[in-house]
Amino acid sequence: MQVYLTLVRREVGSYFLSLTGYVIIATVLLLLGLSFTDMLAKLNAEPTDAPITEVFYITVYFWVILLLTAPVMTMRSFAQEKFSGTYETLMTAPVSDGQVVLAKFTGAMLFYLLTWLPLLAYIFVVHHYSSEERALDGWVIASTFLGISLIGCVYMSLGCFASALTRSQMIAAMISYGLGLALFLLSLRALMPMPTTGWEAKLFAYISMTEHMQEFARGVVDTRYLVFYLSLTLSFLFLTWKVVESRRWK
Amino acid sequence: MIEVTGLTKRYAGRTAVDAISFTVGRGEIVGLLGPNGAGKSTTMRILACYLPATAGTVRVAGFDVFREADEVRRRIGYMPENNPLHPDMRVREYLKFRARLKGLSRSRTRERVGIVMQQCGLTDVSRKIIGHLSKGYRQRVGLADALVHEPELIILDEPTIGLDPHQIRAVRQLIKDLGCSHTILLSTHILPEVEMTCSRVLILHEGKILAADTTENLRKTIFEGGQVVAEIAAPLPDLKQCWEEMEAVQHFDISPADGAFHRCALTPRNGVDLRPLVFEQVRARGWLLRELTLSRHTLEDIFVKVTRADKEEEEPI
Question: Which of A196, A221, B144, B250 could bond B116 through an S-S bridge, CB–CB 3.0 to 4.6 Å?
Fold first, then answer.
């Protein structure tokens, strides 16, 4: 446990010891700010009954921010250490492969959540200036953040996996861009001709992240989605673990 | 402390370490000597549980490096080649992180970090960012990291590479001091380094151990029978006759130097030191002597010698 916590602290700290962390946060803040003004403009033009969290997620901003920043957040985790050689000092310390993988994932996850915190401020700003008392529902916000966290889990574990495969941050980022975008495009049924009936339709509905997110933003927490995201995360973490372990395969 | 039996490591299409066996006792300082690509780093990486061996067993402090890696890692302090560090951390911060990672308690961490920083002369730079330190200081940070959890065995891969002579001396002294309380295995391709710091030497070449002996014995075999070079002012025929008559000279070679001097290269028979004999002759014949040197073998010579011996053995087949 001590080892795990020490590693997590180092992981989170490493974002702020270099410029990377600040650049990512600044980018996210800029994009969130843009999306916020866009959302306000829309709300002013035509009032809606939907919770403001949902209004936010119907814009493309959320996905752009997610797809853009997630690979950058995780590309360093393994690749950087392998490149600089510190991976060797890390793996020869009395730590287990599982601890390292979990700590890298947790570190990335904490940083990811941190970048989404400004969103809370926007919601409070809206609440402050709106006459509608019910504009802000604690449960809806909670389920929205649950959705953000779950999607984050998938993208962070995917990023860690990509980073563990290579010693180049560039390649790690490209792999996670590719995989992440592919995963997202599967859920964009509007863009692609998808079957509308039969088991295929069911499958695509099940993996459609945009639809999941819409439900989370409405305050609906479906356990099927929980299972979907958690199992996807666990599979990527398992793969990462195996990649890390593969060094010791004879 | 270390028992290696039949250790082999094959990378795709290349054998880096070829069935080597050796032991290192508690409290010894042992040097792994060899040219680049001899398999030193690979051996050390296997000892440090970073790479698996293709064949053979390695035990450190009685634990198998493959099956009981965790126990082994607790007992070793390993500094890899090129000493990788986190350049964005401060010295004290980094050492604290490493100590905690190695399972030291909070109070013990504070205590040990203080001690190793003093030991390695880092107290003055404890708040500096590692990336801004000179190479010598960074090397000391790496050493301090290897020491921080009081390991029984310290493995140092080329600890003095890239340092200036002053820093090399400081690091060597540090290693010597550590040798009083720890078992140390270090690698290098510099012969004097081994002579100065190690009690025993393993010479590695192309993945095989060519020689394993104490420094003293090794020095004897290396320096004994060395060629002697003498610059003497004497007529050429006299010199020729003198060396021909001398029993201990197996082979000689005379080339003219400036003025009346001749440069004589003398190879001894049965490893006799020719210098006193040459001086005796010069004095008896009233010649003028301006140089008398025993040409010392370098590491390169040993390798050339040993590898040549290998080939000669193979030839009859």
Answer: B144
